[in-house]
Amino acid sequence: MKTSDFAYDLPPERIAQTPIEPRDHSRMLVLDRKTGKYQDKHFYDILSFLKKGDCLILNDSRVLPARLYGIREKTGAAIEILLLKSTGLNTWEVLARPGKRVKVGENLIFGEGKLVGKVVDTDGAAERTIEFSFEGNFYALLEEIGQMPLPPYIKKKLKDRERYQTVYSHELGSAAAPTAGLHFTKELLAKIQEVGINIGFVTLHVGLGTFLPVKVEEVTDHQMHSEHYELSKETADLINETKKKGGRVIAVGTTSCRTLESIGLQDGKIHPREGWTDIFIYPGYTFQVLDGLLTNFHLPESTLIMLVAAFAGYENTLNAYKHAVSDEYRFFSFGDAMLIL
Fold first, then answer.
1. Which CATH number, 3.40.1160.10, 2.60.40.10, 3.90.740.10, 2.40.10.240, labels domain 67-145?
2. Which of 60, 117, 143, 341 could be 130's S-S partner, Cβ–Cβ 3.0 to 4.6 Å?
3. Does the pTM exceed 0.85?
4. Per CATH, which fold does 3-63+160-340 belong to?
């Protein structure tokens, strides 16, 4: 398939700039992937579409205040970096802006000297590897001087940084939020469990590779960045028990989906695992674990809409997106939800 096959027209005013309050009052398009039929609902209606014995798999990764503003020690010029992933003790892969002039060996100063980063490697473009020196706790320093890494299409300042975290976020490490989970409240999660729907957690630390634009016309030529994931024995057991009893495994978000499908089934079961994945899911892929997917509306020509099309069907997906645009759904990170069953 061609990347251009996944294009659609989106007026700029459909891109959500602020989160809905309360969280579960966002809209939800419910798509039947067998028939292609869809329904317009709200997120708090989700219980009507879940059954006792189903399980939801949520990504509990927590977003780092990963955007840092500082200066280059050599010139005093302003520099901005975005932490992508930890590669060792106090060492991180980052995106730097402006990046081309920042050389190996150069020091970058953040928080008026509370955090100093030495450039130790470069890919020749915008990515750098930086070794940090500091006193105290690195993550506490990030909370003090870092900014939430909101996507560039969100122009409004976020008043409460917790609104770019899920209510169940726990494991620090993401450069972007697993946004499908932003719609859940603690109260709604409690109701879901009360009626016999189980909840399990995976961890996948979201890197920017998931969101980078596809710059090649042939879909199969695109190379995904790798992201770290972990599936516990407890969650593996829950998934296997759900499958055994005829329940549905519903991934909350493309990150949970990619974690489960990266591991897959062996002898009909999923097993605990930790590692790195660069799985790229697009139409033609055969799903091993998923029975349902809860997700947001994604950018045109992105790997995320390709994943949705692989699960829901290409025509079904494009038709649903066309309806969502015309019916004025809100798109992207702070936008509305889509439940595919």
1. 2.40.10.240
2. 117
3. yes
4. QueA-like (3.40.1780)
